[in-house]
Amino acid sequence: MQARDIRSISIGRARTSREIFLIKNSFLNIIVDEAHNILSVNSERESEQWKDYRLETFEEIIKEGRKFGVFLTIASQRPFDISPTIISQLHNYFLHRLINSNDIRAIEKTVSYLDNLSFESLPILPTGTCILAGLLAQVPVVVDVGRIPKLYEPNNKTMSLVDKW
């Protein structure tokens, strides 16, 4: 065997080892914004068969995905509309102001990481503040989320009708 052959074999093995390392240490994080529109149990926009398939798929991802490096992050203003299975399987929660009693009850039923004071605070949290609860924090923590620089702000502010009159 010549030196060039040995080098080729070594490079070939290193490349395979690197690929195996990358595969074992990679992950996929699926982010679903406005999750109440996609993960709703009460959706009437599609057939029952499609809704069951859609929910089963996401429920399987959230229950079994972490074993394979697949994670789900959801954002929603209406947790009541999201499948309780999905809500209960999440590991961390960034809870912003919730006013609707159905939404608060949905969180109360499925999120075991919150104490009574945190639940009572949900309707009165100021803009830009949330409660972090879950595996990341031993106790619920109030977090002040920094503002986005004006240059990058989305155009999604609630219109002030008084200012327009």
Q: What does this protein look like?
A:
The chain has helices at residues 3-24, 35-38, 48-64, 84-89, 101-110, 116-121, 161-164; strands at 28-32, 70-74, 92-95, 129-134, 137-144. With 165 residues, it is an alpha+beta fold. The chain folds into 2 domains: 1-90, no CATH class; 92-154, no CATH class. A 3-stranded antiparallel sheet has the order 3-4-5, with no helix packed on it. It has a two-stranded parallel ribbon with strand order 1-2. The longest helix is centred in the first third of the chain and has 22 residues, at 3-24. Residues 1-12 have low confidence and may be disordered.
Please provide a brief summary of the model.
The protein is α+β, with helices and mostly antiparallel strands. It has seven helices and five strands.
Output the keywords:
disordered N terminus; two-stranded parallel ribbon; alpha+beta
Overall average pLDDT:
80
State the share of residues found in helices, binned by percent: 40-55%
How many DSSP helices?
7
Terminal CA distance reads 87 Å
Number of strands: 5
- Strand arrangement, major sheet: 3-4-5
Overall, the morphology is globular
Into which percentage range does the β-strand content fall? 15-25%
Main sheet properties: 3 strands, antiparallel
H-E string: HEHHEHEHHEEH
